């Protein structure tokens, strides 16, 4: 009887040991600032689906959209502190960490999204994914949103129409210079505040791709949207080097595979949304979409292009040249 009790106790101890040896799933928080019905929002949800499918019981992906967890101004600091593991800020928001990514903010640099994609996938674009390494961050890939349009509470056909108006910009000195080049007044503000600033007329205008203008209802508080396609708003998916290296090799490999697939999915969504959200805005009749002529567009190019020279040393001439080459 005593040996039976001993055996049962031993089995119980072994069972307890075995259960404690089963590792708890790694929780990965993915924070972003846009709505779920956007390219980035859809990409984050696809990543959750694929990662949890590939690593059942091993990872638990929590997606926080709409600045619910952190705004873009805080998310990278939070990542370095280990409070969030994934984010995809717009490329304009890395200025504090590296000057090189500001190449993406130069006005009228890329002729279309195919050119942006060629640059990102080419050797210089791929090298830029490592430009944050010295700050403890790893770039896992780029995701598209699309070309930016200019919105305002008055019609903008030529740069002179924007003179003296206040425009919200992301935290990028290139974007500040871009608006100063047309004698407008740029104000750096978080994305989460843009709707209210426009609604209360604390600012007159903003720049955003179609999917942000639609999903955040900016078109309901801006009377006019000028189809300028003057710049790009894309993202870099980032994680902290310390977190990424702490993962077992197989988990890291599967997560990277899931991320690559999710990014490809998000990029498809971005192509579709650029067209469909533009049309939804037109159909809503809440805002007038202005198509400018080639001559009018040239005036914007002439006014804004000197910004390239202003930032050439900071960004790197070779990087700008590689981006120009991607247009060919
Ligand atoms: C985003 O698309 O993530 C936000 C962009 C912005 O701040 O305008």
What is the count of distinct domains? 1
Average pLDDT reading: 94
Task: Could you tell me the CATH topology label.
Answer: D-Maltodextrin-Binding Protein, domain 2
Spatial separation of the terminal alpha carbons: 86 Å
* Radius of gyration from CA coordinates: 23 Å
Tally the helices: 13
InterPro entries: DctP_fam, TRAP_DctP, TRAP_DctP_sf
Signal peptide: 1-23
Organism: Oceanospirillum multiglobuliferum
Family: Belongs to the bacterial solute-binding protein 7 family.
Report on the structure:
- Keywords: Signal, Transport.
- This is C4-dicarboxylate ABC transporter.
- Helix 2 (about 40-55) runs antiparallel to helix 10 (about 250-285).
- Strands 4, 5, 6, 7, 8, 9 and 10 form a seven-stranded mixed sheet that branches. This protein has a three-stranded parallel sheet with strand order 2-1-3, sandwiched between helices.
- The chain is built from 13 helices and ten strands.
- It has about 325 residues and is of the alpha/beta class.
- The chain is globular and about 65 Å long.
- It has one domain: Bacterial extracellular solute-binding protein, family 7 (D-Maltodextrin-Binding Protein, domain 2, 3-Layer(aba) Sandwich).
- The protein binds succinic acid (SIN).
- Succinic acid binds near residues 33, 145, 170, 208 and 212.
């Amino acid at each position: 009887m005593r040996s039976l009790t001993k055996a049962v106790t031993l089995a119980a101890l072994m069972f307890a040991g075995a259960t404690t040896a089963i590792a708890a799933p790694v929780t990965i928080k993915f924070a972003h600032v846009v709505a779920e019905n956007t390219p980035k929002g859809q990409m984050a949800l696809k990543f959750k689906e694929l990662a949890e499918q590939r690593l059942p019981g091993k990872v638990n992906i929590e997606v926080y959209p709409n600045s619910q967890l952190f705004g873009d101004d805080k998310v990278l600091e939070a990542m370095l502190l280990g409070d969030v593991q994934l984010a995809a800020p717009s490329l304009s928001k890395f200025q504090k960490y590296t000057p090189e990514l500001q190449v993406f903010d130069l006005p009228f640099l890329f002729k279309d999204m195919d050119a942006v994609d060629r640059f990102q996938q080419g050797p210089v674009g791929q090298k830029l994914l490592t430009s944050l390494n010295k700050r403890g961050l790893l770039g896992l890939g780029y995701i598209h949103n699309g070309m930016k349009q200019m919105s305002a509470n008055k019609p903008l056909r030529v740069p002179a129409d924007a003179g003296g108006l206040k425009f919200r910009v992301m935290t990028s000195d290139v974007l500040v210079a871009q608006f100063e080049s047309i004698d407008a007044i740029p104000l750096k503000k978080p994305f989460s505040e843009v709707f209210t600033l426009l609604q209360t007329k604390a600012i007159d205008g903003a720049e955003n791709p179609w999917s942000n203008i639609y999903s955040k209802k900016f078109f309901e508080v801006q009377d006019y949207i000028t189809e300028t396609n003057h710049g790009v708003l894309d993202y870099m998916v980032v994680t902290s080097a310390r977190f990424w290296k702490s993962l077992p090799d197989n988990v890291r490999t599967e997560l990277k595979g899931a991320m690559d697939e999710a990014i490809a999915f998000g990029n498809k969504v971005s192509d579709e949304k650029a067209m469909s959200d533009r049309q939804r805005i037109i159909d809503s009749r809440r805002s007038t979409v202005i198509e400018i002529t080639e001559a009018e567009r040239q005036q914007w190019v002439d006014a804004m292009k000197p910004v390239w020279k202003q930032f050439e040393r900071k960004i790197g001439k070779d990087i700008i040249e590689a981006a120009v080459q991607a247009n060919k």
